[in-house]
Amino acid sequence: MGSSIDNEGEPLLVMRTQCGDAAAFEQLLRRVHGPVRRYVVNLAGESDADDILQEVAFTIHRRIRHLREPRVFRAWTFRIATRIAFLYLKKVKRWRELESDPELIRAMALSGSNGQEQFDHDFLALVDRVSPASRAVLLLHYQQHLSLEETAAILDIPVGTAKSRLSYGVAMIRGFITGGNHEA
Q: Which residues pair with residue 100 across a beta bridge?
């Protein structure tokens, strides 16, 4: 789940939070805010991100005392963010259940001579056109650099479903690039 340096000290902060330490809770939220915000913005859009993130923070606060494995705090947080974002998207009728494929993203990365920043922008613009289910897998796998097993665990889906959604998402993006698909 990302680099261990990112997560260093989080289990202790979780335990302190579970004992009622408000400063530890604030520190935990600050540590995960950036990655979770990027994920939520790319999953649900900039205009909805703050509402979703507020609900994520509230849910974490309400449920952290029940987290049995403090070392999985970050994955647990992404799972909460995913569920809340999907519920939100469902409410606003933007939810469509689709599925995903990885070779295209790697090909884009290898062929992109515009630099990483341009690649990120182009990738995110294409990912935004894919269903939320596939978008979540694409973002966790490629943007957060998580394995398919970690991605599946966060989304609480079988690894096979994560692979399928990844495959479908990449196929959709490939279609957007080649002009074969115009809508997700």
A: 169
pLDDT given at position 146: 84
Domain boundaries, the chain: 4-91, 103-178
For domain 4-91, which architecture applies?
Orthogonal Bundle (1.10)
Nearest to 43 by CA among 123, 133, 118, 106: 133
Distance CA 115, CA 38 (A): 20
User: Which two tokens mark 31?
Assistant: 């540590």
Q: Please report which residue ranges of the chain form alpha helices under DSSP H.
A: 4-7, 10-18, 22-44, 46-63, 73-91, 103-111, 116-127, 132-138, 148-155, 159-178
Task: Return the CATH number of the domain spanning residue range 103-178.
Answer: 1.10.10.10
Q: What is the DSSP letter of 1?
A: -
- pLDDT tens, position by position, 102-111: 555 555 454 4
CA-CA distance, 157 to 155, in Å (whole number)? 5
Instruction: Tell me which residues of the chain have a pLDDT lower than 50.
Output: 1-5, 93-101, 108, 110-115, 184
Sequence-distant (6+) residues with CB within 8 A of 109 are 119
